[in-house]
Amino acid sequence: MSLYILPKERLPGFVDNLRAGFRVVGPVRTETGFAFDTIHSADELALDYPTTILPPKKYLLPQRETLFTFHTGTSEQGARQIDVQPAFEDVQPTVILGVHTCDMHGIMLYDKVFTEGYRDEHYIARREQTYIVGIECLRPCDEASFCKDMGTLTAPPVYDLHMTAVDGMYLIDTGTEKGERLLLSNVEVHLATTEDIRRLSQTLSAKWPHFRHRLKMTKDQIPSLMTINYGSNIWDTLGERCLACGSCTNVCPTCFCFDVQDEMDLNMSEGQRSRIWDSCQLHEFALVAGGHNFRGSKASRVRHRMMRKGKYIQQVHSLTGCTGCGRCQRACLVDITIPGTLNALYDEMQIDLNPATGA
Amino acid sequence: MPPKPKIAFFDFTSCEGCQLTVVDALQTHLGLLDLVEIVQFREAMSERGEDYQIAFIEGSCTRESDEARLRAIRAQAAVVIALGACAHLGGVNSMKNRWPIENVQTYVYGKHGRERYESYPARPISAVIEVDYAIPGCPIDRLEFIRFVQKLLQGRKPKLPDYPLCVECKLAENACLNKLGQPCLGPVTLAGCDAVCPSYGDGCEACRGFAPEANFAHMREILQGHGLSEVEIDAQFTMFNAYQLKAMGANAPLSTGAGNGSRRRTADAEKLPSSTFAAPKET
Predict the structure, then answer these.
(1) Number of domains in chain A
(2) Which of A24, A151, B79, B243 has the most Cβ atoms closer than 10 angstroms to its Cβ?
(3) Alpha carbons B95 and B203: distance in angstroms, whole number
(4) Residue A130 contacts residue A351 (beta carbons within 8 Å)
């Protein structure tokens, strides 16, 4: 694909042109931080945002969404009839601007989860009309992020366009043909020169030292670390602290579990089936008919989340289950963190494996 | 068409705000009146039918003479629903349970209060009669009320969230008040209100009751981190849930014990400032 130059002063014009044909969403300043929201004018866009509470996943899998409506009635022969009408809420041409590289890794996982095997038509309908415009992270969001450890500091092949701020311009990489068309038809850009590409490489190399490692092990060691520690005591310690509030999973860019509910309208003959984000950290998640709960203790649920992030997702989808975005750490009120947990497990292993202690 | 189920509303010790919310809900969801027949609703109509099948009861039980009326409602109704925090939990009325009832009567009604006004510790109606369901909240959420009635009429078990409020705050993408240094009981409180208070910047006060897995020890630590004293944390915990906490006995997550509130106040009852609601000074 090609590399284009967009002078920064042309960004507002680009956004305005996009707004004519798309819902444009991007990071905006809120009272207390930043959030992805619809952009009404380019000056709302805060592309240098550190992070948001919810990742942009909410535009691909909304917190609540109606899947279909139904109408119950009686046929002429007297048989009970149910007509089902698929619903597609919030499906509209959308450009998500300013997606961090970690969140792009999250979207790449979503694409796999919702399109391979069972094809989720609601997700696909929304995804097909969505353009992802990434922004290169040149400094860490804050102390909570550990993207460098998780290998999510570079953009995965999920973007339509990817922007890197270099001096007074954005260098824009086109990831897809439709992304290139989107760029060329909405703003005047020119192809990057060899000198521009040299400056881009310089910027990209210069950013790495700003990001620190937080994990004591490499990313590749995490799945086996999780396997070995399935029976660790750490889960009881964490379970005792856990508030079972589900904040960690709701803010996670790789969590995708949902609950499905039916609701009737007041006329008692029509209704809708909807889905809402669910969380494996909540008591009811693994409760089944008959009253048995497969993960009744908080300890078993905390472990399950860590296993999902560190091992299961990687095993099933061959993609990282944790993007190192740090959102769960920022959301947790009792300081349960992925790096803290993994490092504690790793430390225990070091002691066990040390021949001097006779293990 | 089968006959419409007959429903009735009753009130005990409460502000009647939940019944007002029902009136409000009926204005926006008139269709509900096609599905049920309201035969008694003092807040909204003069008729008083006694042949109801479904009874909604607002308010807590705070005096002995309430009990017979509650039992009569239970004897008539096939389904009894506690409407709102007072009926469901005891609610704000149960704050008084932390002090000896004699002191409370004197404090509220003046020195002859004990002779003139009957009162005993506030209890949820489930402490007196069997209750089938509760619609929590202070006041109730009107959409939840509508959904509840719909489910009931479909013959399905109305289901309320059993997880903490934080879930709804995250879905709304609210900034966490506890993270911002503002006390919020969301982590230990049942969801279902769509996090209405935190969404407007007010910390949760647990009017829907505590979540089954409420982690009180760590909730206290979080509140201590905001600079709240032990007595202030106890006050937060007991605003709506004094009855539940007292029922926990020695296990209650309170620093001062569930029963004795502030010792100073109990000892110096006579020196208390007169309450806004106190009877005029008797001479």
Answers:
(1) 1
(2) A24
(3) 19
(4) no
Q: Within a 10 A sphere around the Cβ of A278, how many other Cβ atoms?
A: 20
In a domain, A205, yes or no: yes
All residues of chain A having their beta carbon less than 8 Å from the beta carbon of residue B222 are 333-334
Helix residue ranges, H only, chain A: 11-21, 101-115, 121-128, 147-150, 177-186, 194-207, 222-228, 234-241, 247-250, 298-307, 313-317, 327-331, 338-353
Residue B105 C-alpha, separation from nearest chain A C-alpha, in angstroms: 39
**Do B218 and A63 make contact, defined as CB atoms within 8 angstroms?**
no
Q: Are strands B6-11 and B54-58 parallel, antiparallel or unpaired?
A: parallel
Among A257, A259, A268, A333, the residue to mutate for chain B (most B Cβ within 10 A): A333
Tell me the fold of B6-153.
Rossmann fold (3.40.50)
pLDDT single digits (tens) A91-139: 999 999 999 999 999 999 999 999 998 999 999 999 999 999 999 999 9
Q: How far is B198 from chain A (nearest CA, A)?
A: 13
| CA pair distance B93, B104, nearest whole angstrom | 11
Which of B35, B165, B170, B190 should one mutate to test binding to chain A, selecting the residue with the greatest count of A CBs within 10 A? B170
CB contact (8 A) between residue A331 and residue B176 = yes
Contact A298 B170 (CB under 8 A): no
Predicted structure pTM score:
0.92
Q: Which residues contact B177 (CB under 8 A, 6 or more apart)?
A: B183, B184, B186, B198, B201, B203
* Mean pLDDT on B65-91: 97
Size of interface A-B (CB pairs under 8 A): 96
Q: What is the pLDDT of residues A29-79, one digit of tens each?
A: 999 999 999 999 999 999 999 999 999 999 999 999 999 999 988 888 888
B68: exposed, middle or buried (Cβ count in 10 Å: 0-12, 13-18, 19+): exposed
Q: Residues of CATH 3.40.50.700 domain(s) within chain B?
A: 6-153
